[in-house]
Each structure stands twice: as C-alpha cells, then as structure tokens.
Input
Amino acid sequence: MKAFVVHGRNQLGKVDNIDLPASRYAHVDIAVEWSSLNYKDAMAATGHPGVAPILPHVPGIDCAGTILVNSTGSPRPHPGEKVLVTGYELGAPQWGGWSEQVRVPSDWVVPLPDAFDTRHAMTLGTAGFTAAQCVSALVDRDITPNGGPILVTGATGGVGVWSIRLLAHLGYEVVAVTGKQDRVADLLALGAAKVVGREVLEVEDLSKPMLAARWASAIDTVGGEPLARIVRSTNYRGVVACCGLVAGTDLPLNVYPFLLRGITLAGIDSAKCPRAPRLEIWRRLSSEWHTTLPDCWINETTLAGVGHEVTNMLAGKHAGRTIIRP
Output
C-alpha cells in the first residue's frame, strides 16, 4: 500500500510502498478515506524525534474510513462500518493516517456520527476536537454568550478557525487575534465579531500583577507571554482554555488573577482524552454544535502533495484545515 513515509531526521518524507506493521494485540484494520494535517504531523513529517522516535515513520494523527478487519472477537466495529480515530498514539509514535490503511487497537476507534461523512470528520480532526474541548471548558463553567467577548488567539490555525466557528455558532461574540492581515475578511465571514493584530497582547507591561479586564474568557493556542497577558486581562470568573505553545513554554504569571478574579486556567489535551468525554465531544459536534467551515478554510491534497503543505505549515504560511485523501 502507499503511504507518506519518513526515513531520516530533519528531512521531509516521501510517498513510498509499505506493508502494515505486525501487531502483538487484537486490532482493527481501517481503509483510510481521509486524514488531515496538524502541526504535530508537520514535525513528524520531518523526522522530529519527539514525535517520531522510531524510523521509518508514517505521520497522521487523524484518520477516518471503513473497517476492513476486526481481529478482536468483538462484534463492533464490524467490517464495513465507518469510523474515525484521533489522538492516542496514532501518528506519534505509532504509524498514522497518511496511508491507504492503518492498524490500531479497537478502543481507539470512534463510530462515525450519522450527521457527517468521513471527509467532514477530517475537516474537524484533532483541530476541531481540540477546539470543541476548549469551547466545552467555557460552556461547562457557565460562560454564557451574553457575558462579553471571547478572545481567540492563533485565529487562522486549525484550532483557531474551529474555535471561532463553534463559538459563533453558539452565539458568542468572538475577538480573533491574528498576524495574517490578508485573512481578516475571511475571519469575519467565519463568525468573528472583531479581528485584532497580535500587538493587542504586546502593549501591556508584564511586570504589573494584573491588567485591565478586557475579555470574558479566552481560547489560547500560542502560550508563553501572550497567555500570561490574557490571564491577567480576563474578567472576573473568566475561563482561559490553553492548548498551544508556539509562543513559548514559560508562563510569567503570579497568583493574583486566580485569587482576586477567580480566573480558571483550563489545560486542554486531546491525544489522551478519556473515552467517555471523547464520545461526548463527538456527540456535541454531530448534534447541537454541528456546523461546517467555509470552503476558503479547507484545502484538499493527496499524499503526493502533502510535503508542500508541511513546508508551508512549518514556515508559518498555512491557514485553516488541510485534509488528505490517501
């Protein structure tokens, strides 16, 4: 079968012919109809040892398709059933979805919701799943649409665009932060009420214990000093969902925002999300939160074209969601 295979460190992989890996455990085999591109995939595609510790490696932390074989002895999922997989060890460190087939443990598999097909499942993928967890962190802590603006950083990234779309779908006022001024009109069409530049999070003095409250809550995809400023400028009892680190891993904060404003800093992890809340997120995404992205935020490619998309992502030129059809 064909797959995008990484053979060396610090070098882009290529399309190659491989066999499914042998398995020591009961498993299911999936014919992959769609996968997607995430930042972790871009790192794996160039042989980053923190994501792809063993080479050769097949990236792809998401996939959706049809069950071919179930060796577990359980009646579900049965051959012919449509399913999706996001997270766990798919694509990091195990071989992932940039392949015509994948072999995974059956408990990684989520039945495809009736409300959408495998293509839509991968326009969501880990990015949409992460965004939905961020939105859940706000909703489940009683942050309501009439409470004030919600800040979303990294607005043109996969998590960012889905966060904006979901929040707007639920009636929230969204302020989108981006450095890509050529996408302002697209962000407004996506559902943002206002689009601001990154400098909005650079003007305040971080030596101050707290900053003027500006946001009811926030979804932050970048981390570092921007996250510290967001926490210090979030309103009383606000929630800041954190799911990224491209701006840094250090967090220069004090305890005042937590003690004097009751701020909640909610960390979001997608790969190891337990099964019960995982299924609940997919239920929400397929029912009361069901929405789609405008076409301008979705790019389709094949295994042969994914290297170009990886290069763009690592150069900071990627926006929205790229889905891959093996």
The first helix runs from residue 39 to 45. The chain has eight helices and 15 strands. The first strand starts at residue 2 and ends at 5.
